[in-house]
């Protein structure tokens, strides 16, 4: 049973949307529904959701476009629904930021299991990052500051650099484990939710975005370096700030 879980189901087919919402409610979830991306965007401005079940083939704005917006601007996990089962379509969906992909027709019990898994991985990502024994509020590295309470990155000039949820999680893992080489799979396990382990190149996108914010020349990074054939590591010494 879902407890205190608010789900958003976005599908233009009423014969799928309404029965699915009813099924999820029977499992204890609070469920809102939307017939297209415009309605979904309006709901996302008004309420917070724990997860979005999103059909790809929507009238007007596509589900992939909405998924990309959610991934980049909100951070809510997304499970895509689609009738397209090819590997290329799955990759396209996951590359927009989706956490999982379910092909129609589907068994509602399978979708429930996948929702639980995504939410469980999200919870683990939030609490599973290695932390020092004493609570830490801020880290300093190379004249940068990462404020954990505010989830804020301050540049050497004191400028606040916006971080999306995925970027914050990745940077925090690296800052709390400097000089440690992590494989892509390890970084995905510690920073993401969902079945993304088979598409480990998605972590490269997050690294690229962080480099653009941290590095004076992202093509020649000196803070977030590549361990060729292995993954990535953070080169700077890190201090705990008062």
UniProtKB/TrEMBL annotation:
<keyword id="KW-0238">DNA-binding</keyword>
<keyword id="KW-0902">Two-component regulatory system</keyword>
<keyword id="KW-0804">Transcription</keyword>
<dbReference type="InterPro" id="IPR039420">
    <property type="entry name" value="WalR-like"/>
</dbReference>
<dbReference type="InterPro" id="IPR001789">
    <property type="entry name" value="Sig_transdc_resp-reg_receiver"/>
</dbReference>
<keyword id="KW-0597">Phosphoprotein</keyword>
<dbReference type="Pfam" id="PF00072">
    <property type="entry name" value="Response_reg"/>
</dbReference>
<protein>
    <submittedName>
        <fullName>DNA-binding response regulator</fullName>
    </submittedName>
</protein>
<keyword id="KW-0963">Cytoplasm</keyword>
<keyword id="KW-0805">Transcription regulation</keyword>
<feature type="modified residue" description="4-aspartylphosphate">
    <location>
        <position position="55"/>
    </location>
</feature>
<dbReference type="InterPro" id="IPR011006">
    <property type="entry name" value="CheY-like_superfamily"/>
</dbReference>
<dbReference type="Pfam" id="PF00486">
    <property type="entry name" value="Trans_reg_C"/>
</dbReference>
<dbReference type="GO" id="GO:0006355">
    <property type="term" value="P:regulation of DNA-templated transcription"/>
</dbReference>
<dbReference type="InterPro" id="IPR001867">
    <property type="entry name" value="OmpR/PhoB-type_DNA-bd"/>
</dbReference>
<feature type="domain" description="OmpR/PhoB-type">
    <location>
        <begin position="134"/>
        <end position="236"/>
    </location>
</feature>
<feature type="domain" description="Response regulatory">
    <location>
        <begin position="6"/>
        <end position="119"/>
    </location>
</feature>
<dbReference type="GO" id="GO:0000976">
    <property type="term" value="F:transcription cis-regulatory region binding"/>
</dbReference>
<dbReference type="GO" id="GO:0005829">
    <property type="term" value="C:cytosol"/>
</dbReference>
<dbReference type="GO" id="GO:0000156">
    <property type="term" value="F:phosphorelay response regulator activity"/>
</dbReference>
<feature type="DNA-binding region" description="OmpR/PhoB-type">
    <location>
        <begin position="134"/>
        <end position="236"/>
    </location>
</feature>
<dbReference type="GO" id="GO:0032993">
    <property type="term" value="C:protein-DNA complex"/>
</dbReference>
<dbReference type="InterPro" id="IPR036388">
    <property type="entry name" value="WH-like_DNA-bd_sf"/>
</dbReference>
<dbReference type="InterPro" id="IPR016032">
    <property type="entry name" value="Sig_transdc_resp-reg_C-effctor"/>
</dbReference>
């Amino acid at each position: 049973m879902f407890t205190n879980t608010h789900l958003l189901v976005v599908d233009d087919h009423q014969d799928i949307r309404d029965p699915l919402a009813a099924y999820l409610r029977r499992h204890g979830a609070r469920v809102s529904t939307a017939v297209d991306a415009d309605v979904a965007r309006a709901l996302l401005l008004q309420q917070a959701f724990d997860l979005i079940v999103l059909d790809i083939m929507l009238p007007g704005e596509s589900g992939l476009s909405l998924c990309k917006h959610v991934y980049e601007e909100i951070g809510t996990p997304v499970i895509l629904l689609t009738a397209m089962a090819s590997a290329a379509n799955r990759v396209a969906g996951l590359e927009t930021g989706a956490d999982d992909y379910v092909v129609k027709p589907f068994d509602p019990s399978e979708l429930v299991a996948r929702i639980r898994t995504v939410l469980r991985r999200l919870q683990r990502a939030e609490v599973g990052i290695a932390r020092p024994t004493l609570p830490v509020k801020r880290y300093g590295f190379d004249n940068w500051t990462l404020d954990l309470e505010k989830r804020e990155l301050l540049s050497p000039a004191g400028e606040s650099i916006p971080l999306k949820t995925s970027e914050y999680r990745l940077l925090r893992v690296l800052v709390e484990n400097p000089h440690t080489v992590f494989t892509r799979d390890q970084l995905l396990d510690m920073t993401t939710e969902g079945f993304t382990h088979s598409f480990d190149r998605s972590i490269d996108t997050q690294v690229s975005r962080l480099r653009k914010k941290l590095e004076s020349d992202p093509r020649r990074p000196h803070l977030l370096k590549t361990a060729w054939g292995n993954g990535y590591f953070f080169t700077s010494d890190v201090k705990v700030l008062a």
